[in-house]
Amino acid sequence: MFARPSRLAGAIHRATLTLSLAGSLLVLPAAWAQPQRYDIPAGSLAQALSQFAAASGVMITFSAEDTAGLSSPGLRGDFELDQGFARLLQGSGLRLVQAGDKRYVLAKAESGGALELGATSINAAGLGANTDGTGSYTTGLSSTATKLPLTLRETPQSISVVTRQRMDDQGLNDITDVLRQTPGLSVQSLGSERFNVYSRGYSVDNYQFDGIPTTLDIVSQVSAQSLADMAIYDRVEVLRGATGLMTGAGDPSATINMVRKRPTAEFKGHVSAGLGSWDKYRTELDLSGPLTPTGNVRGRMVAAYQQNNSYVEHYSQEKQIFYGILEADLGDSTLLTVGADYQKNDPKGSSSVAFPLFYSNGKQTGFSRSTNSAARWSSNPQDALNTFASIEQQLGHDWSLKVAANQMYIKRDGYKLATASWGFPDITSGDGVRLYGGAGSTWQKQTGLDVQLQGPFTLGGRQHELIVGYNFSRYENRHSPLRGTAIEGTYVNFYDWDNYTTKPDTSNGKLYDGDTTIYQSGGYIATRLRPTDDLSLILGARVSNYKYDYDLEYVLTPRSNRNTQYRESGVVTPYAGVVYDIDDIHSVYVSYTSIYKPQSVRDASGATLDPREGDNYEVGLKSEFFGGRLNTSVAAYVIEQDNLAVVDPGQVVPGTTTSAYKAVSGATTRGFEVEANGELAPGWNLAASYNHSITEDADDERINSEAPANMLKLWTTYRLPGDFDRLTLGGGANWQSGTHITVTPSTALGTVKAKQSQFTVVNLMARYQLTDQLSTTLNVNNLFDKKYISALDTTFYSGYYGEPRNVMLSTRYDF
Predict the structure, then answer these.
(1) pLDDT value at position 657?
(2) Per-residue pLDDT averaged across 335-347, rounded?
(3) What's the rounded Cα separation, in Å, for the pair 632 and 652?
């Protein structure tokens, strides 16, 4: 399917004007040619080189054997690039050799340990993929879009990266904290442990661990991905738009790829402790380094613990995180990686649904931010265990074969939930609300495997790249709720029930068994062709198979049992991208991706909706300054879809209280994005973005209005110069336009509307480096204590408030 010519042409014309303007605005001075100030302590040569490369923007390649046992005198003061390297390598017997236009490697000095830079001046080169220890707000490589290792500028889609440094600066300890700061994403709380993330107007359910896909179904309330703690992750990459090439079925919203920390060749680590608002306590321990004298086996271990109360009454949380990973060089060309991570979440006062949005007269409610709709004993514990392994074999001629697997097992055992959210309270008395919830157990297992072969090939006298692969994923969710006669149907007075109610009576056994199985598999191929030095063509396709099964078996009423199945095979998902380098800094691109998304929601007759299908077009300008230390992008896109599921007002699925959906054809989304991430100058980091997105149906009426049409996000940190260089200050603001929903919850209530006006949340931070190893950081969030509703839920007609002003003070010691 294709865009209507006049609208698509108009969008491209507006995008071209935007790109031209952005190109003129984003040309920045080459600050890296001037002397820079460095503060690198004496220590191991490998660590000193890594810190210097991160600060100066130069890529240096070396092995652990090159620097084993070598130390460096460090570097303090103002130095030009060649002076800095000469000082760091003094007495090491090593020299720099130019290995490419923007890359240098360490080699043995030919005589006297002299440093040789060659005739060509050193240009800043890109960072590597990992961000831990770089101090950067951007990354040099990403493979989330096509599995090919590309720089952000070489990737013909919108991609944002939240680095380890950014997470540390802002105290982003949960994945939802990270996503709130990510360009173009809106995080909406549907309950205390249930979140919906929107991108480009659509819900995001595609989460990855190190590139292995998993599925998040927020309806099941088994949501380990959206509860992930950030202690174990190096970075989070978010690819906006359709990603069917690598994932098969998927929304045109985004893919969230959480990339774990890796072992390091040198010993390093840190321990930290923090204290914050609402009795929040948090500790972390991170240790990494070689486990054998030769360094051929390396390991990393991370442990974290957090407990806290909340601004929401009667709600508290405790979580434990453990992570271990081993890397082993089985030979010169074989790398084996194995590991596991475990997270235990134990909340109390959990709400499966947020507070009611409407009074019985149809007016929007206005409760205190501390209002909790859950019973005090309500709890939704979740334990999540991830095990993973990969083996990578170098095959010669720069070809490699990699096999990677991940299995996630989630146990939600002994949950007991009661939420006063079913119905609409009387505005005067508070009567008229029933409890929603129950008790039972759930387990979920997701298994993913990816096999890929990639490398260069020569055609027409030029070198190109090719990747061929196969992956599959299996999703199993087993839910066994118990018959809780004291929960469903019990009325409370929302004003004075004080979160007390009888616990559910679970002695009557199971209510039903609900088993969901989703299986996806497919082969993919992608190639990056280089017809000229300035032109890249990325072409690819995927052939997918999809199976969906849902079995519902009632214990007492077998006649109510039902089975829903869906099968699809041989679905072809094409992908095409063109990138043209205008010069050494700027590139323009255009990309196309098809959309295919099977749906499990049902309409008012009980039938499952047909798969959603469509097309995603994107055009943009990307730039990298200072050799990739600062990345900017401007993009415009058009998304067209048929069979888009939207809530059918006033309708429910037969035999349930679940809202029914209807399919909308001809839905069109148009938007544009502007983003900048990285270093403006030494010690000055910036993350800034603006995103606009509107979705309309075939009659040009806006839909998905619960997602904001406009978002502006800004964050910056600056390390003061001179005598104050131990102090780093930071601050920023997140603004979004208003949101609203228009729904028909019941015939009696009629059609009603809830809204949240535009709002801005301001955050600040300050870090003081007490010694070279010890630092303390203060974060202040929501500085002006803005009250706002973060979520407008069209399924349960509920809302959830964002956090009031809060502070966190933490101390960290680096080894």
Answers:
(1) 62
(2) 97
(3) 46
Which SS3 state, helix, strand or coil, does residue 787 take? Answer: coil
Tokens of 456: 């260069």
Tell me the DSSP string of 582-626: SSSSEEEEEEEEEEEE----B-TTSPBPPPEEEEEEEEEEEEEEG
Token pair of 629 as six digits:
């230390």
Q: How many CB atoms lie within 10 A of CB 474?
A: 17
Convert the pLDDT of each residue in 151-174 to its tens digit.
899 999 999 999 999 999 999 999
**DSSP one-letter string for 653-703:** -TTSSSEEEEEESSEEEEEEEEEEEEEEETTEEEEEEEEEEEEE-TTS-EE
What one-character-per-residue DSSP string does 171-231 give? T--BHHHHHHHSTTEEEEEEETTEEEEEETTEE--EEEETTEEEE--GGGT--TGGG-BGG
Confidence (pLDDT) at 229: 97
Handedness of CA 50, 52, 58, 60 (dihedral sign): negative
Q: Give the pair of three-digit tokens for residue 407.
A: 């299995």
Which residues on adjacent β-strands are paired with residue 814?
A: 270
How far apart (Å, rounded) are the C-alpha atoms in residues 600 and 376? Answer: 33
Q: What pLDDT does residue 502 have?
A: 84
Q: What is the pTM of this model?
A: 0.84
Ordered domains of the chain (ranges, CATH): 25-125 (3.55.50.30), 254-272+282-368+388-433+447-494+511-814 (2.40.170.20)
Residues 6+ apart with CB under 8 A from 248: 520, 521, 522, 542, 544, 546, 571, 573, 596
What's the first-to-final CA gap in the chain, in angstroms?
57
Query: Residues 337, 389: contact at Cβ < 8 Å?
Result: yes
| pLDDT tens column, 177-188 | 999 999 999 999
Task: Say how far apart CA 285 and CA 276 lie, in whole Å.
Answer: 18
The Cα–Cα gap between 540 and 570 comes to: 15
Radius of gyration of the chain (CA): 27
Whether the CB-CB separation of 589 and 145 falls below 8 Å is answered with no
Mean pLDDT of the chain: 86
Helix (H) or strand (E) holding 45: helix 45-56
Alpha carbon distance 724, 722 (integer Å): 5
How much is the average pLDDT of 348-374?
A: 92
What pLDDT, on the 0 to 100 scale, is given for residue 109? 59
State residue 525's pLDDT score.
93
CA–CA distance, 328 with 297 (Å, rounded to integer): 4
What crossing angle do the helices spanning 45-56 and 81-88 adopt, rounded to 10°? 170
Phi, psi torsion values for 166, nearest 5 degrees: -65, -40
Tell me which residue of 570, 618, 615 sits closest to 596, measured CA to CA.
Answer: 615
**pLDDT class for 354, splitting at 50, 70, 90?**
confident
682 φ/ψ angles, rounded to the nearest 5 degrees: -55, 125
Which range, of 64-68, 198-202, 456-460, 762-766, averages the lowest pLDDT? 64-68
Point out the least confidently predicted range of 195-204, 371-380, 600-609: 600-609
Q: Are strands 60-61 and 103-108 parallel, antiparallel or unpaired?
A: parallel
Please name every residue paired with 576 in a beta bridge, in sequence order, or none if there are none. 539, 592
**Pairing mode, strands 710-719 and 739-746:** unpaired
d(Cα 625, Cα 138) in Å, to the nearest integer?
12
Confidence of residue 493 (pLDDT cuts 50, 70, 90): very high
Q: Which helix (H) or strand (E) holds 5?
A: helix 5-25
pLDDT bin (cut points 50, 70, 90) of residue 64 is low
CA dist 683 and 174 (Å) reads: 26
Rounded distance between C-alpha atoms, residue 668 and residue 662, angstroms: 16
pLDDT digits (tens, 9 = 90+) for 97-145: 654 444 556 766 544 333 333 322 222 233 677 888 888 899 888 888 8
**Three-class secondary structure of residue 566 per DSSP:** strand
